Amino acid sequence: MKPLATAIVAVMALGGCQVHENTLVRLAAHDSFVMSDELIDQFESETGYQLEILRLGDTGALTNQLILTKNAPVADAFFGIDNTFLGRAEEENIIRGEPSAIDYSDVCFNLDIGWFRENSVTPPETWRDLVKEEFWNLVVISNPNTSSPGLAFLASTHAGFDTPEGVQSYWRALQANGVKVAGSWEDAYFSDFTRYGGNYPIVLSYCSSPAAEVLDNGEAGTVALLEDAFRQTEFAGVLAGSANEDAAAALVEFLVGPSFQASLPEAMYVYPAVPGTQVPESWAAFAKPATSTIGENLDIDSHREEWLENWSEIFDN
Protein backbone atom coordinates (compact mmCIF):
# COMPACT_ATOMS: atom_id res chain seq x y z
CA MET A 1 0.00 0.00 0.00
CA LYS A 2 2.87 2.38 0.72
CA PRO A 3 4.09 2.61 -2.92
CA LEU A 4 0.50 3.17 -4.05
CA ALA A 5 0.00 6.01 -1.57
CA THR A 6 3.26 7.59 -2.69
CA ALA A 7 2.15 7.36 -6.30
CA ILE A 8 -1.19 9.02 -5.53
CA VAL A 9 0.54 11.92 -3.78
CA ALA A 10 2.90 12.32 -6.73
CA VAL A 11 0.02 12.41 -9.20
CA MET A 12 -1.82 15.02 -7.10
CA ALA A 13 1.30 17.18 -6.96
CA LEU A 14 1.81 16.94 -10.70
CA GLY A 15 -1.83 17.90 -11.20
CA GLY A 16 -1.35 21.13 -9.26
CA CYS A 17 -3.38 20.08 -6.20
CA GLN A 18 -1.43 20.73 -3.01
CA VAL A 19 -1.44 18.17 -0.20
CA HIS A 20 -2.02 19.32 3.38
CA GLU A 21 -2.19 17.55 6.71
CA ASN A 22 -5.28 19.53 7.70
CA THR A 23 -7.44 20.15 4.65
CA LEU A 24 -10.50 21.73 6.31
CA VAL A 25 -10.84 25.53 6.40
CA ARG A 26 -13.89 27.07 8.07
CA LEU A 27 -15.16 30.51 7.06
CA ALA A 28 -17.45 32.46 9.41
CA ALA A 29 -19.58 34.93 7.46
CA HIS A 30 -22.76 36.96 7.75
CA ASP A 31 -26.02 35.65 6.32
CA SER A 32 -25.73 37.69 3.10
CA PHE A 33 -22.45 36.08 2.05
CA VAL A 34 -22.64 34.39 -1.35
CA MET A 35 -19.97 32.21 -2.93
CA SER A 36 -21.02 30.14 -5.90
CA ASP A 37 -20.40 26.40 -6.14
CA GLU A 38 -18.11 27.12 -9.08
CA LEU A 39 -15.96 29.45 -6.99
CA ILE A 40 -15.88 27.00 -4.10
CA ASP A 41 -14.75 24.27 -6.49
CA GLN A 42 -12.09 26.60 -7.91
CA PHE A 43 -10.75 27.46 -4.46
CA GLU A 44 -10.65 23.82 -3.40
CA SER A 45 -9.04 22.72 -6.66
CA GLU A 46 -6.37 25.43 -6.62
CA THR A 47 -5.44 25.11 -2.95
CA GLY A 48 -6.22 21.54 -1.92
CA TYR A 49 -8.31 22.78 1.01
CA GLN A 50 -11.93 21.89 1.72
CA LEU A 51 -14.15 24.90 2.50
CA GLU A 52 -16.90 24.93 5.11
CA ILE A 53 -19.01 28.11 5.40
CA LEU A 54 -20.68 29.07 8.69
CA ARG A 55 -23.30 31.82 8.46
CA LEU A 56 -23.70 33.48 11.85
CA GLY A 57 -26.35 36.16 11.37
CA ASP A 58 -25.98 39.84 10.55
CA THR A 59 -22.63 41.61 10.89
CA GLY A 60 -23.16 42.50 14.53
CA ALA A 61 -24.21 38.97 15.43
CA LEU A 62 -21.23 37.59 13.49
CA THR A 63 -18.82 39.86 15.34
CA ASN A 64 -20.36 39.09 18.73
CA GLN A 65 -20.23 35.34 18.11
CA LEU A 66 -16.57 35.46 17.10
CA ILE A 67 -15.75 37.46 20.22
CA LEU A 68 -17.67 35.11 22.51
CA THR A 69 -15.88 32.08 21.05
CA LYS A 70 -12.40 33.60 20.70
CA ASN A 71 -10.88 31.13 23.18
CA ALA A 72 -12.20 28.24 21.09
CA PRO A 73 -12.72 29.70 17.60
CA VAL A 74 -15.58 28.27 15.57
CA ALA A 75 -13.82 29.15 12.32
CA ASP A 76 -10.41 29.78 10.80
CA ALA A 77 -11.24 32.89 8.78
CA PHE A 78 -14.01 35.46 8.69
CA PHE A 79 -15.78 37.51 6.06
CA GLY A 80 -18.12 40.44 6.60
CA ILE A 81 -16.93 42.39 9.63
CA ASP A 82 -17.17 45.95 8.37
CA ASN A 83 -15.66 49.30 9.32
CA THR A 84 -18.38 49.95 11.90
CA PHE A 85 -17.57 46.75 13.83
CA LEU A 86 -13.90 46.21 12.91
CA GLY A 87 -12.59 48.30 15.80
CA ARG A 88 -14.44 46.15 18.30
CA ALA A 89 -13.06 42.98 16.73
CA GLU A 90 -9.54 44.40 16.93
CA GLU A 91 -10.04 45.49 20.55
CA GLU A 92 -10.96 41.90 21.40
CA ASN A 93 -7.88 40.58 19.54
CA ILE A 94 -9.83 38.08 17.45
CA ILE A 95 -7.97 38.87 14.20
CA ARG A 96 -4.47 37.64 13.37
CA GLY A 97 -2.55 40.11 11.25
CA GLU A 98 -4.13 42.77 9.06
CA PRO A 99 -7.62 42.18 7.61
CA SER A 100 -8.15 42.65 3.88
CA ALA A 101 -10.81 44.89 2.33
CA ILE A 102 -13.10 42.78 0.12
CA ASP A 103 -15.99 45.01 -0.95
CA TYR A 104 -17.74 48.29 -0.29
CA SER A 105 -21.08 50.00 -0.74
CA ASP A 106 -22.84 53.10 0.54
CA VAL A 107 -25.51 52.69 3.22
CA CYS A 108 -28.58 54.74 2.35
CA PHE A 109 -32.35 54.51 2.06
CA ASN A 110 -34.05 52.77 -0.87
CA LEU A 111 -37.54 53.66 -2.09
CA ASP A 112 -40.13 51.45 -3.79
CA ILE A 113 -40.87 53.56 -6.88
CA GLY A 114 -44.09 51.74 -7.69
CA TRP A 115 -45.55 52.28 -4.22
CA PHE A 116 -44.94 56.04 -4.32
CA ARG A 117 -46.39 56.28 -7.82
CA GLU A 118 -49.49 54.23 -6.98
CA ASN A 119 -50.15 56.15 -3.77
CA SER A 120 -49.41 59.60 -5.23
CA VAL A 121 -46.91 60.38 -2.48
CA THR A 122 -43.96 62.65 -3.22
CA PRO A 123 -40.84 60.73 -2.14
CA PRO A 124 -38.29 62.13 0.33
CA GLU A 125 -35.10 63.71 -0.98
CA THR A 126 -32.79 62.91 1.95
CA TRP A 127 -32.88 60.87 5.15
CA ARG A 128 -33.50 64.10 7.06
CA ASP A 129 -36.96 64.24 5.47
CA LEU A 130 -38.07 60.96 7.03
CA VAL A 131 -39.34 62.66 10.19
CA LYS A 132 -41.98 64.55 8.18
CA GLU A 133 -45.59 63.52 8.74
CA GLU A 134 -46.11 62.48 5.11
CA PHE A 135 -43.71 59.60 5.76
CA TRP A 136 -45.43 58.40 8.93
CA ASN A 137 -45.24 54.63 9.26
CA LEU A 138 -43.40 54.22 5.94
CA VAL A 139 -39.81 53.60 7.08
CA VAL A 140 -38.02 50.44 8.23
CA ILE A 141 -34.44 50.32 9.46
CA SER A 142 -32.29 47.59 11.00
CA ASN A 143 -31.21 47.58 14.64
CA PRO A 144 -27.79 49.25 15.07
CA ASN A 145 -26.98 46.91 17.96
CA THR A 146 -26.84 43.91 15.65
CA SER A 147 -26.83 45.25 12.09
CA SER A 148 -23.99 47.01 10.31
CA PRO A 149 -26.31 49.12 8.09
CA GLY A 150 -28.17 50.14 11.24
CA LEU A 151 -24.95 51.19 12.96
CA ALA A 152 -23.77 52.93 9.79
CA PHE A 153 -26.94 55.01 9.67
CA LEU A 154 -26.62 55.82 13.37
CA ALA A 155 -23.10 57.06 12.60
CA SER A 156 -24.48 59.10 9.70
CA THR A 157 -26.83 60.94 12.03
CA HIS A 158 -23.96 61.75 14.38
CA ALA A 159 -22.02 63.14 11.43
CA GLY A 160 -25.04 64.98 10.08
CA PHE A 161 -25.92 67.02 13.18
CA ASP A 162 -23.73 69.46 15.06
CA THR A 163 -24.65 68.35 18.59
CA PRO A 164 -25.64 65.15 20.43
CA GLU A 165 -28.92 66.89 21.23
CA GLY A 166 -29.59 67.29 17.52
CA VAL A 167 -28.97 63.58 16.99
CA GLN A 168 -31.29 62.56 19.83
CA SER A 169 -33.97 64.97 18.63
CA TYR A 170 -33.87 63.41 15.16
CA TRP A 171 -34.15 59.86 16.49
CA ARG A 172 -37.03 60.75 18.79
CA ALA A 173 -38.82 62.37 15.87
CA LEU A 174 -38.15 59.33 13.69
CA GLN A 175 -39.54 57.02 16.37
CA ALA A 176 -42.60 59.22 16.80
CA ASN A 177 -43.09 59.06 13.03
CA GLY A 178 -43.58 55.29 13.17
CA VAL A 179 -40.22 53.94 12.04
CA LYS A 180 -39.98 50.17 12.35
CA VAL A 181 -36.79 48.61 13.71
CA ALA A 182 -36.06 45.17 12.25
CA GLY A 183 -33.58 42.75 13.76
CA SER A 184 -31.43 42.52 10.65
CA TRP A 185 -30.98 43.93 7.17
CA GLU A 186 -32.41 40.71 5.73
CA ASP A 187 -35.58 41.08 7.81
CA ALA A 188 -35.99 44.74 6.91
CA TYR A 189 -35.44 44.21 3.18
CA PHE A 190 -37.00 40.85 2.45
CA SER A 191 -39.84 40.85 4.99
CA ASP A 192 -40.80 44.48 5.67
CA PHE A 193 -40.02 46.25 2.37
CA THR A 194 -43.04 46.61 0.09
CA ARG A 195 -41.08 45.20 -2.85
CA TYR A 196 -41.24 41.84 -1.07
CA GLY A 197 -44.76 42.02 0.30
CA GLY A 198 -44.08 44.10 3.41
CA ASN A 199 -45.69 47.32 4.56
CA TYR A 200 -42.79 49.78 4.36
CA PRO A 201 -41.83 51.44 1.05
CA ILE A 202 -38.69 53.06 2.50
CA VAL A 203 -35.95 50.69 3.68
CA LEU A 204 -32.41 51.19 4.94
CA SER A 205 -30.14 49.39 2.48
CA TYR A 206 -27.35 50.22 0.02
CA CYS A 207 -26.78 52.40 -3.03
CA SER A 208 -26.15 49.25 -5.07
CA SER A 209 -29.37 47.49 -4.04
CA PRO A 210 -31.45 48.97 -6.91
CA ALA A 211 -29.36 46.91 -9.34
CA ALA A 212 -31.16 43.85 -7.97
CA GLU A 213 -34.60 45.41 -8.48
CA VAL A 214 -34.63 46.17 -12.20
CA LEU A 215 -38.05 45.35 -13.64
CA ASP A 216 -38.70 43.04 -16.59
CA ASN A 217 -39.23 46.09 -18.80
CA GLY A 218 -35.74 47.35 -17.95
CA GLU A 219 -36.91 50.16 -15.70
CA ALA A 220 -35.83 50.73 -12.11
CA GLY A 221 -38.00 49.19 -9.41
CA THR A 222 -36.31 51.07 -6.59
CA VAL A 223 -34.18 54.17 -6.19
CA ALA A 224 -31.60 55.10 -3.57
CA LEU A 225 -31.22 58.40 -1.71
CA LEU A 226 -27.60 59.16 -2.55
CA GLU A 227 -26.96 62.27 -0.44
CA ASP A 228 -24.98 61.94 2.81
CA ALA A 229 -24.63 58.16 2.79
CA PHE A 230 -22.12 56.14 4.81
CA ARG A 231 -19.36 54.26 2.97
CA GLN A 232 -19.29 50.71 4.35
CA THR A 233 -16.29 48.47 3.70
CA GLU A 234 -16.36 44.74 4.47
CA PHE A 235 -13.24 42.83 5.45
CA ALA A 236 -11.94 39.28 5.60
CA GLY A 237 -9.11 37.95 7.70
CA VAL A 238 -7.53 35.12 9.65
CA LEU A 239 -8.98 34.47 13.09
CA ALA A 240 -6.58 34.34 16.01
CA GLY A 241 -6.36 30.82 17.36
CA SER A 242 -7.34 29.28 14.03
CA ALA A 243 -6.79 25.55 13.77
CA ASN A 244 -5.52 26.05 10.22
CA GLU A 245 -3.90 29.45 9.73
CA ASP A 246 -2.26 28.53 6.42
CA ALA A 247 -5.61 27.52 4.96
CA ALA A 248 -7.28 30.66 6.34
CA ALA A 249 -4.61 32.84 4.73
CA ALA A 250 -5.07 31.02 1.42
CA LEU A 251 -8.82 31.63 1.61
CA VAL A 252 -8.41 35.35 2.27
CA GLU A 253 -5.99 35.53 -0.65
CA PHE A 254 -8.64 33.90 -2.85
CA LEU A 255 -11.29 36.40 -1.72
CA VAL A 256 -9.15 39.32 -2.92
CA GLY A 257 -8.30 37.44 -6.11
CA PRO A 258 -9.79 38.24 -9.52
CA SER A 259 -12.36 35.43 -9.69
CA PHE A 260 -14.10 36.18 -6.41
CA GLN A 261 -13.79 39.95 -6.83
CA ALA A 262 -15.44 39.76 -10.25
CA SER A 263 -18.37 37.83 -8.76
CA LEU A 264 -19.24 40.41 -6.10
CA PRO A 265 -21.50 42.82 -8.03
CA GLU A 266 -23.95 40.19 -9.23
CA ALA A 267 -23.63 37.83 -6.25
CA MET A 268 -23.91 40.31 -3.38
CA TYR A 269 -24.63 43.64 -5.12
CA VAL A 270 -21.56 45.36 -3.70
CA TYR A 271 -18.57 47.03 -5.30
CA PRO A 272 -15.30 45.04 -5.42
CA ALA A 273 -12.62 46.57 -3.20
CA VAL A 274 -9.75 45.68 -5.54
CA PRO A 275 -9.20 48.57 -7.98
CA GLY A 276 -9.68 47.77 -11.64
CA THR A 277 -12.26 45.03 -11.13
CA GLN A 278 -15.03 45.42 -13.70
CA VAL A 279 -18.66 45.95 -12.69
CA PRO A 280 -21.72 45.40 -14.93
CA GLU A 281 -22.49 48.21 -17.37
CA SER A 282 -26.01 48.45 -15.94
CA TRP A 283 -24.57 49.69 -12.65
CA ALA A 284 -23.95 53.08 -14.22
CA ALA A 285 -27.73 53.51 -14.26
CA PHE A 286 -28.98 51.36 -11.40
CA ALA A 287 -26.18 51.21 -8.81
CA LYS A 288 -24.65 54.64 -8.68
CA PRO A 289 -22.39 55.36 -5.70
CA ALA A 290 -23.42 58.07 -3.25
CA THR A 291 -23.14 61.66 -4.39
CA SER A 292 -21.81 62.49 -0.92
CA THR A 293 -20.73 60.44 2.08
CA ILE A 294 -20.36 61.45 5.71
CA GLY A 295 -18.96 59.90 8.85
CA GLU A 296 -15.61 58.66 7.54
CA ASN A 297 -13.75 60.73 10.15
CA LEU A 298 -15.88 59.64 13.11
CA ASP A 299 -14.19 57.70 15.90
CA ILE A 300 -16.83 54.98 15.98
CA ASP A 301 -14.79 52.73 18.27
CA SER A 302 -14.66 55.34 21.02
CA HIS A 303 -18.33 56.29 20.80
CA ARG A 304 -20.10 53.07 19.80
CA GLU A 305 -21.27 52.04 23.26
CA GLU A 306 -22.44 55.55 24.15
CA TRP A 307 -24.30 55.94 20.86
CA LEU A 308 -25.99 52.56 21.20
CA GLU A 309 -26.95 53.21 24.80
CA ASN A 310 -28.54 56.54 23.88
CA TRP A 311 -30.32 54.98 20.91
CA SER A 312 -31.60 52.10 23.01
CA GLU A 313 -32.94 54.47 25.66
CA ILE A 314 -35.16 55.99 22.99
CA PHE A 315 -36.34 52.78 21.36
CA ASP A 316 -36.55 50.48 24.38
CA ASN A 317 -38.80 52.84 26.34
Automatic annotation (TrEMBL):
Keyword Oxidoreductase: no
Gene Ontology BP annotations: thiamine transport
Alphabetized UniProt keyword annotations: Signal
MF GO annotations: thiamine binding; thiamine pyrophosphate binding
GO CC, any one term: outer membrane-bounded periplasmic space
Cross-referenced PANTHER family: ABC TRANSPORTER SUBSTRATE-BINDING PROTEIN, THIAMINE-BINDING PERIPLASMIC PROTEIN-RELATED
Protein name: Unannotated protein
